[in-house]
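Sample intake sheet
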Amino acid sequence: TLRFNHQRLRQPKLDVKTGAYLVLTVNRKLFLADKEHLCMLLEALVKAVGNMPVIAPLRGQALELVSSFQLPIHTIPSLDYLEFGWLTANAKGIITDSGNVAEEATFNGVPCITLNSYTEHQETVSVGSNVLVDGDAQKLSEALDDLLQGRWKKCALPDRWDGRTAERIVKILLG
């Protein structure tokens, strides 16, 4: 889907410069249920990034909660797929708790920090642009320092992420 829509991505109505901002997404109930821990993580994020803008397209409870911390994070309502795709594809990096966002970050070659201790998509870590920080503020700070100082790991597209899965399936079915 991302490969098909890549040329259709459109910039949201935000004043951002390509590669000069970070994207934050938080959606998992685990993070939203523990306000103190989430606030501690976001404070570590803000401290680590200095003046780098952090844009957080969020929905519902996540939007309300992150906004309530009154941190210098630009919270906005969630975006449609094509705008969100543009925002993440053109970011300096992404901080997320979503395996799907980490997948798209790997596809786009954008550094991604996942707040979890696990991922449903291990290839985003072993081959791709994703690192796991286990909800640890110190690990998050260290990963952000690596990202901002240009010390991010080398990454590539995982095997078979070439957009030709349907062709392979048809070939198998036709024998």
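Comment: The CA atoms of residues 94 and 102 lie 8 Å apart. The first strand starts at residue 22 and ends at 24.
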